[in-house]
Design goal:
Elements: H1 3-31, H2 34-45, H3 49-67, E1 75-79, E2 85-86, H4 91-95, E3 100-106, E4 109-113, H5 118-121
Antiparallel strand pairs: 1-2, 1-3, 3-4
Helix pairs in contact: 2-3
């Protein structure tokens, strides 16, 4: 195979990957309504634990409105320092929430935030 043919194959493969990735992004982006996306942005922008806890409640309310029923999205937690997965019932998660990163899954989209306090997590646990 000539160099030109190899380059053409690489370009076509790269273009295909971009098109496929773009289609996947379009599907996940369309699953979140504007109020849900806006509420998520406010969670990440919160500066105080109380503000973040209120924004989490607002996010869950917007999600319930969008889905037509109250729902708690799937959560995963990781220790920031070690990168290890942490069980949601691990006492360390509620004792030192600032040391963890929470991934919320909604409509196939993974959204990450760092809780400022235990209060930020309690709405996710139905408290």
């Amino acid at each position: 195979m000539t160099i030109k043919a190899r380059l053409l194959c690489l370009c076509l493969a790269a273009f295909s990957a971009v098109v496929i990735a773009g289609e996947g992004q379009a599907q996940t982006a369309s699953t979140l309504t504007a109020p849900v996306q806006s509420a998520w942005t406010r969670i990440r922008a919160a500066l105080t634990p109380e503000q973040q806890a209120n924004e989490v409640r607002g996010f869950l309310s917007a999600l319930a409105s969008a889905e037509g029923r109250p729902t708690l999205p799937p959560l995963d937690a990781r220790d920031i320092a070690s990168g290890r997965a942490v069980s949601l019932d691990d006492p360390a998660l509620l004792q030192r929430p600032q040391a963890h990163e929470i991934t919320v899954t909604v409509g196939g989209q993974f959204m990450i935030f760092r809780p400022l306090s235990r209060a930020s997590l309690e709405p996710f646990f139905g408290r």
